[in-house]
Design goal:
single chain, Beta-Lactamase, 13 helices
């Protein structure tokens, strides 16, 4: 086959691969999105089941069925949405029959429970024995919902793994096709020197094709850049003039170890091709990932004269992996929240009711009344903590009012136990914030407790307040030994904790509350200083 025919065939093959890959990836992305939606809907089944258990108890106390009927209908709507997804047989990787069978059982159980509850409501009341029966059925429904969510998560994880493998395969296939294409181009350039004008025209066409599909650069033996294509400039944010003559070190992100680059240079210096995934830093400070192949180019004697690198942008794939991992953590938080709601709210309601009865029967004096009030505040704090964790998942709306910062501090200090060896230094000035007081008290509780634990219950906590234009800046500094540098970027991630007894929900809840107020929170160490910036006027 003539060189020109080889090049044309390779370009045609490559275009065909790109077009086919594009359509297949669209289908797979749609399927992956639908799979994630099914997990979310299945997870809501647990929430609705737990909510129904709570509403049954409320109905038993109040005889008001409105919220019970509303949640029954919401549960039904959720199941109908999930049913539409699970019955779709047009997926490339369809839902297994085992999952469909599990869902059918949940659907049947729900309709049975719903019918029985509505019949009991029509009769005017629900007996204690019937309520216990419903609790057992709903508990079984929660267990079955957890099993369904687990299997749907397995399906989504398996689907994501297959898609990533497929994307990597396409990237490698494209890189290989680019390498073959470039090698053929170079040979044509050497063997058809008499047809320079025609060859140059062809090379321009090939360059255009490469610019549309790959990131290409050529360097000398020292790694200094001698050629870059348009896509290289586009992704790196540098102009061609800024790159030519510069070393590839200009793109280092600091993510990879020195050993990583030593292995790269060791491989290509021996005349071998190097493959790898590289994180680079663009001119504007943003980061991007590229699947990279570096090929040594040789002269007629076989001596390496330069290196050519072919790259594919893998940034979106890496972002998806990180988002998928985040969703997995949020799924765990959702399950923990549902358990806390069920396990804590019921006994808290009983304690609250018993306390009210005790107050009516005993006619407390002033001293006893203070004790009762303290118990009530403790019940409220526990309830608020449960609501705060639940609010991270459900994003409860803010109830904002103008509040003095000193009032927030006073309520926070009253809500937690301050060890004798811990001294608090309050700001001399005060400021007014348009905020949800209860939620900001929760923020200060979390930060104070973290500081106390970091200092081993002995030291100084200093709180400062500053006002700048339309913002209020709050800083909480402790005298502890500080936070390891490697832990700081992960502090606000769900389920991440540096304490053996921690849940990993404290700081992520704090961050969620601050951001809901339109503010930001950051941390520096040592010394450990948490900085909160809030607008004076709420945007809600």
């Amino acid at each position: 086959m003539k060189p020109k025919s080889k090049i044309f065939s390779l370009i045609l093959l490559q275009v065909t691969i790109i077009i086919a890959s594009f359509f297949v990836l669209i289908l797979l992305e749609q399927e992956r999105s639908t799979s994630g939606e099914s997990i979310n809907l299945a997870g809501k089944n647990r929430y609705f089941s737990a909510t129904l258990m709570h509403e049954l108890m409320e109905y038993h106390l109040t005889s008001d069925p409105s919220m019970l009927i509303f949640n029954l209908n919401e549960f039904t709507n959720n199941l109908e949405e999930l049913e539409l997804i699970l019955q779709n047989d047009s997926f490339l990787f369809p839902i297994s029959n085992e999952i469909k069978t599990e869902f059918s059982k949940i659907l049947n159980d729900h309709h049975k429970i719903k019918s029985e509850i509505l019949l009991e409501i029509e009769s005017g009341s629900i007996s204690e024995s019937q309520e216990k029966s419903f609790d057992v059925q709903l508990t079984n429904l929660i267990s079955n919902s957890d099993e369904l969510t687990f299997h749907l998560s397995d399906h989504a994880e398996d689907l994501s793994f297959k898609i990533i493998i497929f994307e990597l395969f396409l990237a490698i296939l494209n890189i290989f096709a680019h390498i073959v294409l470039i090698v053929v181009i170079i040979r044509v350039q050497k063997t058809e020197s008499k047809k320079t004008a025609i060859a140059n025209k062809q090379l321009d066409n090939y360059k255009t094709a490469l610019d549309k599909s790959a990131i290409v650069a050529i360097t000398n033996l020292q790694g200094d850049i001698t050629y870059v294509n348009d896509k290289f400039c586009e992704i790196s944010k540098y102009s061609e003039k800024e790159l030519l003559g510069k070393n590839h070190r200009i793109l280092k992100s600091g993510y990879h170890s020195p050993e990583f680059y030593l292995d790269l240079w060791s491989t290509i210096s021996k005349g071998n091709v190097w493959y790898g995934l590289v994180k680079n830093k663009a001119k504007d400070g943003t980061f991007y990932w590229v699947a990279t192949s570096i090929v040594p180019l040789t002269d007629e004697t076989g001596k390496t004269t330069q290196y050519i690198s072919i790259r594919q942008d893998m940034t979106k794939q890496k972002e998806f992996e990180e988002k998928f991992a985040e969703k997995e953590k949020l799924s765990v938080i959702g399950q923990l929240t549902a358990r806390l709601t069920h396990d804590l709210r019921n006994p808290l309601s009983i304690i609250q009711l018993s306390l009210e009865n005790l107050k009516m029967l005993s006619k407390p004096n002033e001293s006893q009344q203070k004790i009762y009030e303290k118990i009530e505040r403790s019940i409220d704090r526990i309830t608020h903590q449960v609501d705060d964790v639940l609010g991270y998942v459900r994003k409860n709306p803010l109830n904002t009012n103008k509040t003095k910062f000193s009032e927030i501090l006073a309520e926070s200090v009253d809500a937690i136990k301050i060890p004798n060896d811990v001294r608090l230094v309050f700001p001399k000035n005060d400021g007014e914030i348009d905020c949800d007081k209860r939620q900001l008290v929760t923020v200060m509780n979390n930060l104070f407790l973290n500081a106390i634990q970091a200092m081993n219950e002995k030291g100084l906590i200093a709180i400062s307040l500053d006002e700048k234009d339309d913002e209020i800046i709050i800083q909480i500094e402790d005298s502890g030994k500080g936070i390891p540098k490697n832990d700081i970027p992960k502090l606000f991630e769900p389920m991440y904790t540096t304490k053996q007894s921690g849940t990993g929900l404290g700081l992520i809840s704090v961050k969620s509350i601050i951001e809901a107020h339109g503010g930001i929170i950051s941390v520096a160490s040592p010394p450990t200083i948490f900085t909160i910036t809030l607008p004076k006027e709420s945007e809600t």
